[in-house]
Design goal:
Helix content: over 70%
Largest sheet: none
Pfam family, one: Mem_trans
CATH topology: Na+/H+ antiporter like fold
Keywords: Auxin signaling pathway, Endoplasmic reticulum, Membrane, Transmembrane, Transmembrane helix, Transport
Function: Involved in cellular auxin homeostasis by regulating auxin metabolism. Regulates intracellular auxin accumulation at the endoplasmic reticulum and thus auxin availability for nuclear auxin signaling.
Protein name: PIN-like protein
Family: Belongs to the auxin efflux carrier (TC 2.A.69.2) family.
Oligomer: single chain
Structural class: mainly alpha
Number of strands: 0
Strand content: under 5%
Low-confidence stretches: 195-199
């Protein structure tokens, strides 16, 4: 493949995302006021509860079988590795920059969680349809690409709503909560320790430590909310996997001769609205970053370096190692998707999570503005390099 073919195949999908994102930002302007705050919130609810589950479920049901699920076992592991490596790099960034307490969860989440949902759903089909794509027949590429992207979205949603959600929740403790913890600790110590004039024996010290540990574990358990794991997109993925892998259900719903194919067709019709709507919402949310402040430039630069330099380089080593040890099946498109998962900007769901806890909402908008602005260059470069690498 020539350089121009690779550049065209890599850049066109990103340009499409930029155009629709810019339209979303324009609609969210105060002078236009089509995408106001209340409107965006309502549209976001429709995307979250209706469009995305229909998109994920219908694609998985149509393209995934039990054999293909077994062959794609490495993808959830690969995504987990992006979170682990991103978290480790984010922790290094925290030790260097020393941000405020309430921003630590946001920074770790932005470094760990990539946009494994809407961007692969847009980029992968667009790459398949571009002239000069190394992935063969566009129809077959699109079919399998949507299956990979759907599984990526579902797996990413599980990790985001278990890991990042609880990170932000844990670090969003306000000063009053901290004062309450300190006060309760002091009261506990005073009630269990004898006066300062007496000698504190080892048994009493151990009792104090054990009681304080119990209290801290109780406080932590109250902060964890594992119910958030079952986001609508995850439920849609479970339903889609059941239909795709259970033969009697598949015969009833999937295919031109299926008696209940109208259900699958309706779900696909609804799901098709998800990608453009999510992209418009992304543009509207990024507009907030122009008005935001309160986060240091070093933090933004650090997150950009983690997500667009160190993580893609780590991904090349991991995916190439998995191919070398025959952990993944021989499929260039599958390899490309695994590599792409390491080069994505932060997950848009992080903005929703910060809104839930009121911790770092403005700062999150600034991070999203810069990372998604620079992603137009980064994704073009890495997509082109990854296509050259797998071809």
């Amino acid at each position: 493949m020539g350089f121009l073919d690779l550049f065209s195949a890599a850049s066109m999908p990103v340009l499409k995302v930029l155009i629709v994102t810019a339209l979303g930002s324009f609609l969210a302007l105060d002078s236009v006021d089509i995408f106001g705050r209340n409107t965006m919130k309502q549209v976001n609810n429709i995307v979250f509860f209706v469009f995305t589950p229909a998109l994920v479920g219908s694609n998985l049901a149509r393209t995934v079988t039990l054999e293909s699920i077994i062959s794609m076992w490495f993808m959830p592991v690969n995504i987990l590795l992006t979170f682990i490596i991103g978290s480790a790099l984010g922790w290094v960034l925290l030790t260097i920059t020393r941000p405020p307490q309430h921003l630590k969860g946001l920074i770790l989440g932005a470094c760990a969680a990539g946009n494994l949902g809407s961007l692969p759903m847009i980029i992968i089909p667009a790459v398949c349809n571009e002239k000069g794509s190394p992935f063969g027949d566009p129809v077959v590429c699109h079919e399998y690409g949507m299956a990979y992207a759907s599984l990526s979205m579902a797996t990413g949603a599980v990790y985001v709503w278990t890991y990042v959600y609880n990170l932000v929740r844990f670090f969003s403790v306000n000063s009053q909560d901290l004062n309450n913890v300190v006060a309760s600790r002091d009261q506990l110590t005073e009630s269990l320790l004898p006066s300062s004039s007496s000698t504190v024996n080892k048994k009493e010290k151990w009792k104090v430590r054990s009681e304080m540990m119990k209290q801290q574990l109780w406080n932590l358990s109250r902060r964890l909310n594992l119910k958030a794991v079952f986001a609508p997109s995850v439920i849609g993925a479970i339903v889609g996997l059941m239909i795709g892998t259970i033969t009697p259900m598949r015969r009833l719903l999937i295919g031109t001769t299926a008696p209940f194919r109208v259900i699958q067709d309706s779900a696909s019709l609804i799901g098709d609205a998800s990608i453009p709507t999510m992209t418009l919402l992304a543009g509207g949310n990024l507009l907030k970053g122009l008005k935001g402040s309160g986060i240091s430039l070093s933090l933004v630069i650090g997150i950009v370096i983690v997500r667009f330099i160190f993580l893609p380089l780590s991904g090349i080593l991991i995916v190439k190692g998995a191919i070398y040890f025959s952990l993944v099946h021989v499929n260039r498109l599958y390899h490309f998707v695994l590599l792409l998962q390491f080069a994505l900007p932060p997950a848009l769901n992080i903005g929703t999570i910060t809104q839930l806890f009121g911790a770092g909402e403005t700062e999150c908008s600034v991070i999203m503005l810069w990372t998604y602005g620079l992603a137009s260059l980064s994704l073009t470069f890495w997509s082109m390099f990854f296509m050259w690498l797998v071809a």
